[in-house]
Amino acid sequence: MSLLITDECINCDVCVPECPNEAIYMGEEIYEIDGDLCTECVGHFDTPQCVEVCPVDCCLPDPDRVETDEELLAKIKD
Ligand code: SF4
Ligand code: SF4
């Protein structure tokens, strides 16, 4: 399941360098997560790193992007 960033994001930038898949980018107003790149950190870390570092806890699972571990791993770039 990919993650998404809610509108509670304060644009602090902290999560951007922590993402192993470069899935976090600046959107029109707040940071956003590219669901085609986010693997929930599967294959890199035991826990989603954006969730770990976000000071306002606005990185949440996206209920519209339910994926298996196999599907998540397939998204990792070589
Ligand atoms: S869960 Fe991991 S891969 Fe997905 S956006 Fe957060 S840091 Fe990046
Ligand atoms: S760490 Fe949280 S508040 Fe900061 S830019 Fe990332 S999503 Fe937004």
Automatic annotation (TrEMBL):
**A cellular component annotation (GO) from this entry:** cytoplasm
Which of UniProt's keywords are assigned here? Answer: 4Fe-4S, Electron transport, Iron, Iron-sulfur, Metal-binding, Transport
Cofactor dependence: [4Fe-4S] cluster
Q: Name one GO molecular function term.
A: metal ion binding
Gene3D superfamilies per the UniProt record, alphabetical? 3.30.70.20
**4Fe-4S ferredoxin-type domain span:** 1-29
Which InterPro entries does the UniProt entry name for this protein?
A: 4Fe4S_Fe-S-bd, 4Fe4S_Fe_S_CS, PSI_iron-sulfur_center, YfhL-like
Q: Which PANTHER family match?
A: PHOTOSYSTEM I IRON-SULFUR CENTER, PHOTOSYSTEM I IRON-SULFUR CENTER-RELATED
* Record's protein name: Ferredoxin
Record organism? Candidatus Pseudothioglobus singularis PS1
